[in-house]
Design a protein that fits this description.
The chain has 191 residues and is of the alpha/beta class. The chain has one domain: Alpha-beta prism (UDP-n-acetylglucosamine1-carboxyvinyl-transferase, Chain), CATH 3.65.10. Helix content is 30%, strand content 18%.
Length: 191
Protein backbone atom coordinates (compact mmCIF):
# COMPACT_ATOMS: atom_id res chain seq x y z
CA UNK A 1 0.00 0.00 0.00
CA UNK A 2 1.28 3.46 -0.93
CA UNK A 3 1.07 6.07 1.81
CA UNK A 4 -0.64 9.39 1.15
CA UNK A 5 1.54 12.50 0.78
CA UNK A 6 1.48 13.75 4.36
CA UNK A 7 2.79 17.23 3.51
CA UNK A 8 -0.19 17.78 1.20
CA UNK A 9 -2.50 17.16 4.16
CA UNK A 10 -0.96 20.11 6.01
CA UNK A 11 -3.43 22.83 4.97
CA UNK A 12 -6.40 20.70 5.97
CA UNK A 13 -5.00 19.83 9.40
CA UNK A 14 -3.71 23.37 10.02
CA UNK A 15 -7.23 24.67 9.34
CA UNK A 16 -8.20 23.33 12.76
CA UNK A 17 -5.78 25.78 14.40
CA UNK A 18 -7.01 28.71 12.32
CA UNK A 19 -10.69 28.06 13.01
CA UNK A 20 -10.42 26.64 16.52
CA UNK A 21 -12.23 23.60 15.16
CA UNK A 22 -11.47 19.96 14.55
CA UNK A 23 -10.26 18.12 11.45
CA UNK A 24 -9.84 14.35 11.07
CA UNK A 25 -7.93 12.84 8.16
CA UNK A 26 -8.33 9.09 7.75
CA UNK A 27 -5.42 6.91 6.69
CA UNK A 28 -2.62 8.69 8.57
CA UNK A 29 0.09 6.04 9.02
CA UNK A 30 1.05 4.96 12.53
CA UNK A 31 4.65 4.60 11.41
CA UNK A 32 6.25 6.44 8.49
CA UNK A 33 9.53 7.82 7.26
CA UNK A 34 7.83 10.81 5.63
CA UNK A 35 9.04 14.16 6.88
CA UNK A 36 5.46 15.43 6.79
CA UNK A 37 4.68 13.42 9.92
CA UNK A 38 6.52 16.13 11.88
CA UNK A 39 3.42 18.23 11.31
CA UNK A 40 1.93 16.63 14.43
CA UNK A 41 4.72 18.05 16.59
CA UNK A 42 4.62 21.47 14.91
CA UNK A 43 0.85 21.87 15.20
CA UNK A 44 1.03 20.86 18.87
CA UNK A 45 3.77 23.39 19.57
CA UNK A 46 1.67 26.05 17.84
CA UNK A 47 -1.33 25.43 20.10
CA UNK A 48 -3.24 22.50 18.64
CA UNK A 49 -3.75 18.99 19.92
CA UNK A 50 -3.13 15.96 17.73
CA UNK A 51 -4.49 12.48 18.31
CA UNK A 52 -3.74 9.47 16.13
CA UNK A 53 -6.30 6.66 16.34
CA UNK A 54 -7.56 3.89 14.09
CA UNK A 55 -9.94 6.49 12.57
CA UNK A 56 -7.05 8.70 11.48
CA UNK A 57 -5.28 11.82 12.68
CA UNK A 58 -7.46 14.37 14.46
CA UNK A 59 -6.22 17.90 15.05
CA UNK A 60 -8.08 20.32 17.30
CA UNK A 61 -7.44 24.02 17.43
CA UNK A 62 -6.87 25.77 20.72
CA UNK A 63 -7.62 29.25 21.99
CA UNK A 64 -4.73 30.78 20.06
CA UNK A 65 -2.02 29.98 17.56
CA UNK A 66 1.43 30.35 19.11
CA UNK A 67 4.59 31.48 17.41
CA UNK A 68 7.34 28.93 16.85
CA UNK A 69 11.09 28.79 16.35
CA UNK A 70 11.65 25.78 14.12
CA UNK A 71 14.28 24.27 11.86
CA UNK A 72 12.49 22.83 8.84
CA UNK A 73 15.48 21.66 6.79
CA UNK A 74 14.05 18.13 6.62
CA UNK A 75 10.40 19.23 6.36
CA UNK A 76 10.71 22.17 3.96
CA UNK A 77 7.42 21.39 2.20
CA UNK A 78 5.66 22.33 5.43
CA UNK A 79 7.21 25.82 5.42
CA UNK A 80 4.42 27.70 3.59
CA UNK A 81 1.78 26.32 5.98
CA UNK A 82 3.92 27.02 9.05
CA UNK A 83 4.58 30.54 7.75
CA UNK A 84 0.85 31.13 7.22
CA UNK A 85 0.10 29.96 10.76
CA UNK A 86 2.93 32.15 12.06
CA UNK A 87 1.32 35.21 10.47
CA UNK A 88 -1.81 34.45 12.53
CA UNK A 89 0.02 33.66 15.77
CA UNK A 90 0.10 35.50 19.09
CA UNK A 91 3.90 35.84 19.09
CA UNK A 92 6.80 36.00 16.60
CA UNK A 93 8.13 32.98 14.71
CA UNK A 94 11.38 31.97 13.07
CA UNK A 95 11.59 29.37 10.28
CA UNK A 96 15.18 28.20 9.69
CA UNK A 97 17.10 25.73 7.58
CA UNK A 98 15.07 26.22 4.42
CA UNK A 99 17.53 27.90 2.03
CA UNK A 100 16.89 25.15 -0.51
CA UNK A 101 13.31 26.46 -0.90
CA UNK A 102 14.74 29.21 -3.06
CA UNK A 103 15.04 26.69 -5.91
CA UNK A 104 11.58 25.08 -5.80
CA UNK A 105 8.67 25.97 -8.12
CA UNK A 106 9.44 29.53 -7.10
CA UNK A 107 11.79 31.07 -4.56
CA UNK A 108 9.40 30.18 -1.75
CA UNK A 109 11.24 32.22 0.87
CA UNK A 110 10.99 35.40 -1.21
CA UNK A 111 7.42 34.59 -2.28
CA UNK A 112 6.26 34.02 1.30
CA UNK A 113 7.98 37.20 2.46
CA UNK A 114 6.31 39.19 -0.34
CA UNK A 115 2.81 37.78 0.13
CA UNK A 116 2.75 37.85 3.94
CA UNK A 117 4.10 41.42 3.89
CA UNK A 118 1.39 42.42 1.39
CA UNK A 119 -1.21 41.19 3.89
CA UNK A 120 0.39 43.27 6.65
CA UNK A 121 2.62 40.82 8.53
CA UNK A 122 6.07 41.91 9.60
CA UNK A 123 8.42 39.61 7.69
CA UNK A 124 12.19 39.37 7.69
CA UNK A 125 13.63 37.44 4.76
CA UNK A 126 16.93 35.70 5.49
CA UNK A 127 19.20 33.51 3.40
CA UNK A 128 17.93 30.34 5.06
CA UNK A 129 14.52 31.32 6.36
CA UNK A 130 12.02 33.85 7.64
CA UNK A 131 11.13 35.73 10.78
CA UNK A 132 7.45 36.57 11.05
CA UNK A 133 5.96 39.17 13.37
CA UNK A 134 2.17 38.85 13.53
CA UNK A 135 0.25 42.06 12.88
CA UNK A 136 -3.33 42.80 11.82
CA UNK A 137 -3.81 41.40 8.31
CA UNK A 138 -5.87 42.76 5.45
CA UNK A 139 -7.11 40.68 2.53
CA UNK A 140 -5.75 41.18 -0.96
CA UNK A 141 -4.81 39.05 -3.95
CA UNK A 142 -2.45 36.30 -2.78
CA UNK A 143 -0.10 35.37 -5.61
CA UNK A 144 0.61 31.65 -5.86
CA UNK A 145 3.53 31.75 -8.33
CA UNK A 146 2.23 28.56 -9.99
CA UNK A 147 3.25 26.80 -6.74
CA UNK A 148 0.83 24.39 -5.08
CA UNK A 149 2.25 24.95 -1.59
CA UNK A 150 1.80 28.72 -1.94
CA UNK A 151 -1.83 28.10 -2.93
CA UNK A 152 -2.28 25.97 0.20
CA UNK A 153 -0.84 28.77 2.37
CA UNK A 154 -3.11 31.38 0.80
CA UNK A 155 -6.20 29.21 1.25
CA UNK A 156 -5.31 28.68 4.91
CA UNK A 157 -4.88 32.41 5.50
CA UNK A 158 -8.20 33.02 3.78
CA UNK A 159 -9.96 31.20 6.62
CA UNK A 160 -8.95 34.02 8.98
CA UNK A 161 -8.49 37.05 6.75
CA UNK A 162 -11.53 38.26 4.79
CA UNK A 163 -10.81 39.42 1.27
CA UNK A 164 -7.96 37.09 0.37
CA UNK A 165 -8.29 35.97 -3.24
CA UNK A 166 -5.95 33.28 -4.59
CA UNK A 167 -4.44 34.32 -7.91
CA UNK A 168 -4.32 30.72 -9.17
CA UNK A 169 -5.83 27.97 -7.08
CA UNK A 170 -5.61 25.56 -10.03
CA UNK A 171 -1.88 25.08 -9.40
CA UNK A 172 -2.84 23.10 -6.27
CA UNK A 173 -3.73 20.23 -8.61
CA UNK A 174 -0.05 19.28 -8.74
CA UNK A 175 -0.45 17.34 -5.48
CA UNK A 176 -4.16 17.63 -4.62
CA UNK A 177 -6.13 17.45 -7.88
CA UNK A 178 -9.50 18.23 -6.26
CA UNK A 179 -8.20 20.85 -3.83
CA UNK A 180 -10.87 23.55 -4.42
CA UNK A 181 -13.73 21.07 -3.97
CA UNK A 182 -12.13 19.35 -0.97
CA UNK A 183 -11.36 22.69 0.68
CA UNK A 184 -14.87 24.01 0.07
CA UNK A 185 -16.41 20.82 1.44
CA UNK A 186 -14.26 21.04 4.55
CA UNK A 187 -15.11 24.66 5.32
CA UNK A 188 -18.78 24.16 4.47
CA UNK A 189 -18.85 26.40 1.41
CA UNK A 190 -20.25 25.54 -1.98
CA UNK A 191 -17.71 24.65 -4.66
Amino acid sequence: QIEPDLASAAPFLAAALVTGGRVTLPGWPRSTLQAGDRLREILTRMGGTCRLTERGLTVRGGDAIHGIDVDLRNEADLSPIVAALAALADSPSTLRGIAHLRSHETDRIAALARELSALGAGVGEHEDGLTIEPRPLTGTVFETYDDHRMAFAGALLGLAVPGIVLADVACAAKTVPDFPALWSAMVGASS
